[in-house]
Design goal:
By secondary structure, this protein is an alpha/beta fold. The chain has 11 helices and 12 strands. It has 2 domains: 130 residues, Aspartate Aminotransferase, domain 1, CATH 3.90.1150.10; 233 residues, Type I PLP-dependent aspartate aminotransferase-like (Major domain) (Aspartate Aminotransferase, domain 2, 3-Layer(aba) Sandwich), CATH 3.40.640.10. The structure holds pyridoxal-5'-phosphate (PLP).
């Protein structure tokens, strides 16, 4: 039995080092080509007004690119504002939920949004459909007592994905909000199945955090206008009616991070060049087959999510047995392979590995061999 310090001393041979060692689930790998493009444009772009054409053209590229990537039907709009997904939850609790929401909670992130609407004094207590972490997710169900359904496309804390479908029997007046922060761009989705599909750039879009984006159906745009007209107090920075106005002008209400917008626009165009959403989803499928296929043939590794259909194709969680996953992660880190540690609060002997489109499947394959190498040399341990 070897302790963590011995195994951290293992040096991986060059052929077991991925081309890029970033496997984090957010912030995630940023493509060097996008950073080079930003450096190239920096003199004319960074440090210039976000109210002028130079920056607004980048926002336009990004919004048009997202419209194409997700094949948005006429009438759907791409909104953006500062603050990331967490701010979007607050904005939604002010500007999208009318009276009462229903949440399918399947882990930390989906539970956090449910906690937001539960705490909002202007809303009724939400209905919560909870699934245990890692279990097959129980979807939202039609209920005339709610006006909004909320669920994640991919629960990043556990590596569980669920299909984006309107609850059967949901009525026209009810809207569906999907937290696609880590799923958008890597998992297939049909726009008719959601009213709001929201995300941030630091996962599949290989950019930086601090921004939120939301693909909105006409029903969602109408809901935003209706809630605003009701006279509810809404802080301006969280006011979605202001986000609608500003987004239509290719702007944000207050100053955005210009590098973030640029990296996002670059990534959306790169994703389109891969063959759009289908091309991206196929890359994620291949990476998922690689990592789960490897785990299936290793005595010490098991996918955390037992249900194959719920096993995420964008964030894989692999349980370890008789091998200390923390030590493996520390050894990988010492060798320049970073951020495969599990989501802390889940408290499992596990590695979590992002499979986002920017991450090469060949690097996932090398990572599995690097883990084998470490485990072989470290021998069995007891976490
Ligand atoms: C990362 C993540 C969030 C939080 O995003 P922030 O931009 O950091 O607020 C929310 N939901 C899911 C599913 C996530 O993966």
């Amino acid at each position: 039995m070897s302790d963590a310090s011995t195994i951290a001393a293992i040096t991986l041979p060059p052929e077991l080092r991925p081309r890029d060692g970033r496997f984090g689930s957010g912030p995630s790998k940023v493509r060097p080509e996008a950073v080079a493009a930003l450096a190239g444009a920096s003199r004319s772009y960074l440090g210039t007004s976000h109210r002028q054409a130079g920056v607004r053209d980048v926002v336009r590229r990004m919004r048009d690119g997202l419209r194409e990537l997700f094949a948005l039907p006429d009438g759907y709009e791409v909104l953006l504002a500062n603050g990331g997904t967490t701010s979007f939850w607050d904005a939604a609790s002010f500007g999208l939920i009318e009276r009462r929401a229903q949440h399918a909670t399947i882990g930390e992130f989906s539970s956090k949004f449910a906690a937001v609407t539960a705490a909002a004094p202007h809303l009724e207590a939400p209905e919560v459909v909870a699934s245990a972490p890692g279990a097959t997710p129980v979807p939202c169900y039609a209920d005339s007592n709610v006006d909004t359904y909320c669920f994640p496309h991919n629960e990043t804390s556990t590596g569980v994905m669920m299909p984006v479908t309107r609850p059967s029997g949901a009525t026209d007046g009810q809207i569906v909000l999907v937290d696609a922060t880590s799923g958008a761009g890597g998992l297939r989705v049909h726009p008719r199945e959601f009213d709001v599909y929201y995300f941030a750039p630091q996962k599949c879009f290989a950019g930086d955090g601090g921004l939120w984006l939301a693909l909105c159906s006409p029903a969602a745009i109408e809901r935003i206008a209706r809630v605003k007209a009701s006279g509810r107090w809404i802080p301006a920075s969280l006011d979605l009616s202001i986000a609608v106005e500003q987004s239509r002008l290719q702007q944000t209400y207050n100053t955005p991070a210009l590098a973030t917008l640029f990296l996002m626009a670059e990534q959306v165009e790169w994703m389109l060049s891969l063959g759009g959403l289908e091309g991206c989803a196929r890359r994620c499928d291949e990476s998922a087959a690689t990592i789960y296929g490897w785990a299936a043939t290793r005595r010490f590794a098991t996918p955390f999510v037992a249900d194959e259909l719920a096993r995420s194709h964008v964030t894989a969680t692999i349980d370890f047995e008789a091998v200390d996953a923390d030590s493996v992660a520390a050894t990988l880190r010492a060798n320049g392979i970073v951020d495969v540690e599990p989501y802390r609060k889940l408290g499992r002997n596990q590695l979590r590995i992002a499979l986002f489109p920017a991450i090469d499947t060949s690097d996932i394959e090398i990572l599995t061999r690097a883990i084998d190498y470490i485990v072989e040399r470290a021998g069995p341990q007891h976490p």
